[in-house]
Amino acid sequence: MYSYEFKPGIVVHEVAAMTGERRTMLLTCRGLRLVCVFLWLALQCVDVGAENMNGDINTVYERMVSYDSADTFTFTWTPQYTANSTGNAAAMVTPRPMRIHVASDNASAGNHVSVQVRSHNAASEISWSVPFSAEGLGSTTSSTSSRIICLNLSEATLNTDNTTKTSPSYNHTLIVDVSALSREPLGYTLIASPVEDFSLVADQKHETRLTPTAPVYYQYMFQPGDQQITVGIESNEMECGIASVQDALCPVYDLARDIQYSGAYQTFSSSSTLLVQRSDFPGDSFYVVLLGLSTDRQCSSRNREQFEAGNGHNAPFYNHSVSIQISKISDDYRAPVALSIVFCGCFYISILASLVIFYYMHKEELGDASLMEFILGSVDLFPELATTQADTSMILTNSGVTSRGRRRTVASSRSEVSIYYEAHDGSDVGTEAGQPGGEPLRDQDISEANEADTQPTTTADDTRGQDLNDSPLASPSSSTETNEILEPPCCCPAFDSTGKRFSLADVEKPPSGVLDKRLHTSPWIVGIVGVFYGVPVVQLVYNHQRTLFATGNQDLCYFNFRCNRRYGQLTSFNAVFSNVGYVMLGVLFILLTMRRQRMFSRTMARDPLQFTRTGIVPVFGLLFALGLALCMEGVLSACYHVCPTPINFQFDTTFMYFIVVLSLLYLYQSRNPDAVTRADKVAMFVAHVVLIVVFGILGNSLPFWCVFFALYMVGNVWAHLRLYFGNFARFRARVVDMQRARAILPISYPRHFILVILSFCLNLGLALYGLSVRPGDFPSYLLNVFVANLIFYLLFYIVMKVSHHERFRLATKVCTVLFLAFGIPAMFFFTSNVTNWEHSPSGSRALNEDCLLMGFYDNHALWHFLSAAALFFYFVALTTMDDPLLHVPRSKILSW
């Protein structure tokens, strides 16, 4: 380029020194020179080398451009229209858009070819450059690129009555400008071609190719009756991409840097599903936008260290096949919702029916009690029980020991055995606790026992029983025969310095009423924790849901997108509603516990000594707390499923910890009533567990696992020492003598010792597994630890009952079978993961599966229903497990 410097001072000086014609001639020459300079400068601002040409569709143009030459193509064509049958004039026609493809082999980042495309009325305009730099490519670029040019539907001509012309004749015009700033000519290739099969059809697969440099989008127009549809995207090549649904308006955001500005979007690698509601698109149509990403950073798991080390996949030129399918789904949820209510209601109906049948089968034994009184529990637990203290004392003392060392618990007559339990197993519950086989007592047994009371026999074990009676641990109101406990060759978890086992009467330090008062606040504490914990949770997940709708970023939540059923502001209404089983069955268990407590209270009012000396110490506070914890588990699980994320997964597990801890406490206090802690301490323990879970989520590293392993092992050793020595450590802590040392030798109680060692090894294995593997899902790991211990202790409890010949009610056996019948398939569905937040959002979507039941419930929803039923039957079995001991004196019930 040339420049001219105009110096007015020199010109004026020269002109002043001249006169006449010479001065005139000089001024004319200088003026002409200035005019030429200005004309040349003006020409530099105009594309002198620009060439305008009319372009033809599907024609390849090979041209050269530079800083002084540019090309302008004008493409005019009559597009094909697809009529919509909705009757909406705003969405009557769908013009088929044009794709502009540009390639340049000798262009570079410093000398690039610029492409600008605009419509004739400037309704849409986009520009890009070649080489094309896709998002995430860094210094790597592509020499080819192509873009689809959006066409406004409003450009379609309509008749005066707002109906579409039968054969629209409106011509679309696109102007394509190609230029460069390089001094050297840059070659390029350009082709304009219409997009084939631009309109998507429901229930038909649409195949396309996807690259990072050529985003694609297609249009779907709602048909009559369409209210909710899903857009399914499948790919077998596991390449990373983004799928988006946007309103059918220009401009279309189809690049990685701007795709989040419109509609809803999500990343995908192998599959993706987007739920679309008609109410979200007033124009009755939308675009499905697909964009390939040049790296797998957005699709890789957050735990992939190899990507952070620089080994991540980076393939900017991949070209893989993608299929799109539109599926219609029903927005009528009445049938599946009703099915859930009926499923839970069947439990209520079954319980009510069983009570009615029981009432009419034993109407004579129930006396004057009406059906409503019996259903509400306004009857005695033992209707035929003697009402005087003398009768109760006779029941407590009518237990003798045979010459062979067998213990019998005898009622004064067969009518004194609870008819409540006869209805379930068809036999007396007053069986011999030490009698093999647990055969029911007969009238002959009663007479034999009465004779044994008048003429007691002396055995080798009587001396040990007398030693126990002489100790301060013996029950003050029990006789020598009542407190006598023989030592069979089975295991013995609680024993004194002579090796004598303790009974409940020995270890029942506080009265039973005081024991229940310690834990009667459990449901209140669980309720308070639920309120103060649940209110912030609801606020948090509500904010998550609002953020999801506001940003359109569906990577925020880990849904099963292939079985998402939206209702109102709930993206996954089906997953949230499927937790109704926990709430309804939790309420049912609370009602059953209230009825049971009312029957106990009525019986205690008639005979205060009945349950202060017989049976397992009742603790209704724990049972109410279990039922309320089950309800709160349903509420918080529903909150978690509003927007499932790794951070709020603890909402779904907090009350699971409560359920497991309360179950362990209920089992342990049944045989160790003196060792029961207060309800506030139980809540404090669960609070510490939740705190550890938070640390595990936020700092899942080797130092954390080392500290956790140390704490785990300390607790493991303490718990198993407590489990083996039982009340001995509590009552004989200050007695150190050789006799006690010999008594605590494990070889003296091999069966109990083996069970404790197995439990210790189980926990040691779980701790070592966590330390070595360091699972990313720490809340689930810790929950599995608690569940494993509960299962083992429950099996330990059952083994001890069986080894001591304690019977189980028929109702307990039936509930156990039902617990397994629901629990086993529930675990199957639980392990069939349809989401996994340990993976990236796109990796989790690869696990998504279709609905299994009524097009509404998936695997995880079925897990909710089945696990709720299993927990209900487990609670009932837990409550009735020791009912056959209700009439047995506590001096005859062993502690372990």
Can you characterise this structure?
The protein is an alpha+beta fold. The chain contains 28 helices and 17 strands. Strands 1-3-8-5-6 form a five-stranded mixed beta sheet, with no helix packed on it. Helix 26 runs antiparallel to helix 28 (859-880). It is elongated, with a radius of gyration of 42 Å. The model is unreliable at 1-19, 83-92, 154-168, 302-317, 384-499 and 727-746 (pLDDT under 50).
Defining key terms:
about 900 residues, disordered N terminus, about 45% helix, alpha+beta, 4-stranded antiparallel β-sheet, 28 helices, 5-stranded mixed β-sheet
Mean pLDDT across all amino acids:
74
Radius of gyration: 42 Å
Strand order of the largest sheet: 1-3-8-5-6
Classify the beta-strand content into a percent band.
Answer: 5-15%
Low-confidence stretches: 1-19, 83-92, 154-168, 302-317, 384-499, 727-746
Q: What structural class should be given to the helix and strand makeup? A: alpha+beta
Please give the largest β-sheet.
Answer: 5 strands, mixed
Question: How many strand units?
Answer: 17
Helix percent band: 40-55%
N-to-C span: 102 Å
**Overall form:** elongated
Number of helices: 28
